[in-house]
Specification:
The complex is a heterodimer. By secondary structure, chain A is of the alpha/beta class. Helix content of chain A is 28%, strand content 25%. Chain A has helices at residues 31-40, 72-83, 101-109, 137-146, 152-155, 165-169, 184-196, 207-212, 227-237; strands spanning 4-9, 25-26, 29-30, 45-50, 62-65, 88-93, 116-121, 124-125, 129-133, 160-163, 197-204, 216-222, 257-261, 265-266, 279-284. In chain B, 41% of the residues lie in helices and 14% in strands. The chains are: A alpha/beta, B alpha+beta. Chains A and B meet through helix 8, strand 13, strand 14 and strand 15 of A and helix 8, helix 9, helix 11 and helix 19 of B.
Amino acid sequence: MTTRSAIILAGGKSSRMGTPKALLPFDGEPLIVHVAGMLQRMFDDVVIVAAPEQELPSLAVTLVRDEVAHQGPVGGICYGLRAARGEIAFVTSCDSAFLNGRLIEHLLEQIDPCDVVVPHWQDRFQPLHAVYRRSVLPLLEQQLARGELRPIFLFDKVRTCRIAEEEIRRFDPDGSSFFNMNTPEDYAEALRRWRRSISCTVELFGVARLVTNTDRISLELPRDSTYAQLFAALAERLPALVGRVITADRPRLVEGYACNVNGREFVRSPETTVNDGDNIAILSADAGG
Amino acid sequence: MHACFARLLHIDLTRGRSEFRPIEESRLRSYLGGIGLGVSLLWEHAPAGIDPLSPANPLIFASAPLAGSGLTTTAKYAVVTKSPLTGFIADSLSSSHFALELKRLGIDALVITGSAAGPVYIVVRDENVEVRRADHLKGKSATETESVIRTELESPAMRIAAIGLAGENLVRFATISNEGRHAGRGGIGAVMGSKHLKAIAIAGGRDIDVADPARVDAIAGSLRQRSLGSLTDKYRSIGTVANLSVFNHLGVLPTRNFQQATFEDAAALSGETLTNNHFSRRHGCACCTIRCERLFTSRGTDGEQRLEYETLFALGPLCGINDPDTVLQAAALCDRYGLDTISTGGTIAWAMETAGRGLLQGIGLRFGDGDGLLNAIHAIGTRDGAGDLLAEGSRRASAQVGANSSDWAMHVKGLELPGYDPRSLKTMALGLAVSPRGACHNRSGAYEADFSGEVDRFRGDAGRGPVVAASEDYAAVLDSLIVCKFLRKCFSDFYREAAEILCAVTGWDYTPDELRRTGERIHTLKKLFNIRERWQPQDDWLPERLLTDRLGKDGDIGLSPEELGEMIRGYYRAREWDEAGYVPVSKLRELGITA
C-alpha cells in the first residue's frame, strides 16, 4: 500500500491570537499534541513544519523548520512535502481541532487520478485541509520563488479534484473540519464546541442501507451522549429507519438488529456512552448463513 | 403413533431387493428424526472401518417428526452416511417438496446399501419399489435429471433427488440435489455415485396426522407470525448474502485462502450491491414463510442463479474474485456438476496459493483469475487433468503435493472451512475444531456468542467449552425435529416451545430438559461414530495457518495453539468426556446410548 503522510503547518505568526496557537491548552494538552495525536492514529508518517526557533512539545513525529520564516502556507507545504515519506500527503494546520477521520479518508480515496484533492466549503477552497501529491513540489517551489504564497494558484496548474459542499456534508455536516482559531474569540468558541459536541460516523448495513439508500452518515452529538440519543438522532436524519430498524416509540434498535463500535465491541445497552470519533455499524444481529 | 410411521425402507442395490422394516418407537423417541435418526441408523447399518465409497456404506435419507405438519420451515430431510471427504460422519440437510414426499411414503427413513452393476435410479411409489436403468441420465445435472425422469414416468408430481456429474465421478465433495437445493457437505453425492445411483424418485399418498390438530394449528399460526417479524428481516429482505459486507467490516471475511480477513473489493460483491444490481426474485422452500432464497441474474449464466453467503464468500473473496458475474457463473457451474461450493472454493483457493508458490505444476491458477476459477470447476466436475487431484479435496491434494502445502490447506478433518475467520471469532474457532462433521458452521452456531457481544470474540478461554457444547446440542435438536435454523431467533424459550410442539405433533411427552438431553445424546452418538472410525485427539484441531499467521493492522489478532488447547480442554470438561476427548462409558449410560 502507498505510504501516506500527514503534514501539520505550525509555523504561523499567531499574531491575532497573541500567543502561539500550537501551545494553546486543548482537551488537557497543547493543541499541537491534540491535532498530531488524531493524525497519528490515521497515518504512519506525520510531519510538523514549524518556524525556526519555535518552541514545541516533544512528539514522535518528523519535525522540520521553515528555511525562511513566515512564507505562508506554500512555504510550509513545500518544506512538509520534502520531508514526507509518502507519495501523497494530507496537509492541515495546527489549529484544526475538529479533524474528521472519515472526511480525511474520503479525500485520500479521491487522489487517483488527481494531484490535489481540495474541499470547497462555503464558496472557498480549503487548501489547509487538502491532499497533495508529492509530485506537485516543483510547481510549489516555483510559486515560492515567485512569491505566490497562496496555494490556490497551484490548483489551475495541476489535476485538481474539487470536493463539493454536498459531498463534504456526508461526513461533516457543519464543516467543523474547517474551523480554525485565529483570535481568542475563536479559541473560546472552539473550547465551547469541544466541550459540547462529539462527532461519529454511522455505517449502515443490509436492510438499514437498502431502506435509506445510505452507506454512512456523520452525526454531531452532545458530549456524553448515549446510544439511545444516537439512535434518536439517526432516526431524525434517516426517517426510513423508524419502525424497521429503530423502534418508533423509543430510541433503540428493533429486535434483530445490532450495533458494533469500531469493528470491535458490540453495544449491549442503549445507555452506553458514545465516544468522539467512533465508527458505529448498524447491522443484522443474526450472522447465520 | 402420530407424525411418524415406525418403519424404514431398506433397498439393497447389489441384490436388487427392498423391504420395509420396523423402527422401534423407543429409537424415534430417543433420536427424534432427521439427523438424530440418521446417526442412529448409521451406527447400526455401517460396518466399522468401512470404505465410504464401498457398497456397504449405507446412504440414509431420514425424515423428521415435524415434516408435513404444516409448521413453517419444517419441510426438511437429512442425509446421513460416512463421508468420503473426512472418513467421519456426514450429515447434511436439504428441504422442500422432496422432504414432504419422503414423509408421504409412510416411512421415517430410506436406507440404501449395496451398489448397482450400472447406472440406475430408484422409483418408490407408496409401497412399490422399482430400480430402473439410468444410462441415458449419465452426465446430466440434477435439474436435467429431475426433468427427464418426470417426463418418462409421466408423473409431474414425482419428487426427485439426484446427483450431477461430480457425484458420478466420485468427487469427494459432491452433493445430492433436489429442486435446486443441495444436501451439500461431506461428499454424500460421491457415496450415491459409488452405488451407481443417479436419482431417487418418490411419490407417496400417505396422510400425515398429528396428535393434537387444534394445538398444532395454533402453534403454526404463532410461528408463522413470528417468522415474518424483524428477527428474520435479514433473510427475507436480502438473504444470507447480507453477511458479506458485515463480515468484511468486522474483519472476519476469509480472503485469498485465509491470508487476509478483509477484502478490498467487498463492496462489489456485497449483498446490498447484488440486491441493487443483480436481484431477480425471491424464492422459498415448500412450507416456508421466511423465503430466504435469492435468485440473481448475471451476464454469462442462463436465467437466474441462487446465491447464498457461503457460496459467495467461497467463490469470491476466498479466491480473490471481485466480479459478481464470475461468482454467479461459478455458482451455476457448481450447481450443474453438483459440487459443494464451500469445499470447491476452499480447494481451489488452496490450489491458487500453491500454484503461486510454484508447487503445482501445470496449473496456471492465481488469486483473482476468474477464468481460472471457472476452468478449475469444470476440471473438478469432470476430474479432468489437475481437476482429478482437486476433486480429492484440499487435505488429500496437499498430502499428495507435500512441501508443507498442508499448512495452508484450510480444512478440519478434511472438510473445508466456511466463511468465518476463526482468529477473531474464538468461540467459532472452538466450534470448528471439535465438530464431528469437520469445519462446519451448521452443526453448532458457535459464532452467535462471538457476534452477540456476550464474550470477547478476540480472546478464547476454557469458558467457551460449555457455550459450544450447548450450541451443538441445540443444533442437534433443531436438525432432528427438523426446524430451519433461520427460525431459531423466533423462539424465546426454545426447549420449552420445542417440547410443546413435539408433544402437539407426535403426542410424546417431553420435558424441556429431556429434549436438551436428547440433543446431547444425538451429538454424543456422532462423536462415538467418529471414535469407532478411528478418530484421534489431533483431529480436533485447526489448520496451521490459523495458529501462526496473524491479522490486523499491527498483527494484533491471532490464535495461539495454547489458546485453542485451553478452549478444547474446557469443551471436553463441559462434555464430561475424558481429557483426550473420548466418551466414558458412564456418559453413555447416563444418556441411554446402548451402542
